[in-house]
Amino acid sequence: MLAYVFWHWKQPQTAAKDYERRQRAFHAALAAAPSPGFLRSFSVGLSGAPWAAGGGDAYEDWYLVQDFGALGALNEAAVSASRSAPHDAAAAVASGGAGGLYRLRGGAALRAPGYAHWFGKPDGMSYGELFAQLAPVLDQSGAGLWMRQMVLGPGRELCVHARAPVSLPAPFDALVVPLRPAWPALDDGDTEPAR
């Protein structure tokens, strides 16, 4: 499972309520007419991520797809047919944005994470060691581990999505960002396992 992650922020003169309404309309249009391989999307409000609005108030959209082919289909579908007008209306009030590509590497893909723990791989640690050290944390907390792909995106290399803050073992040093659900309103228990 892959995720196209899009960080974006509103123009100063746009009310947050209007901005979120436009964002929700786009997500709803995509859910109503999904592209091949599209699984689902969710959006959260956040602040404190240096790569999004300079650490100010921003939004983080996650578009989950089956594979790289589905990512291309999503790219085309997002701005066409019934999704075009909602996409353009949302984009018209955005001040800026940045995107990244992540793959689920362990645990579960939460539908409504409450916290994102962003960090890099410690120097000298292999990915095998990293995954082995984090596996118990993911199992105990019901969290999911996402890993950036092909160095695409301004965010840190790894992200643990969890319902509540988790304690990562040493030597992991994470930036913990509280998330506020913006789309959709779902049961926090809904998850999908890593593939």
From TrEMBL:
It comes from the Bacteria. This is Uncharacterized protein. It comes from Sorangium cellulosum. The lineage of its organism: Bacteria, Pseudomonadati, Myxococcota, Polyangia, Polyangiales.
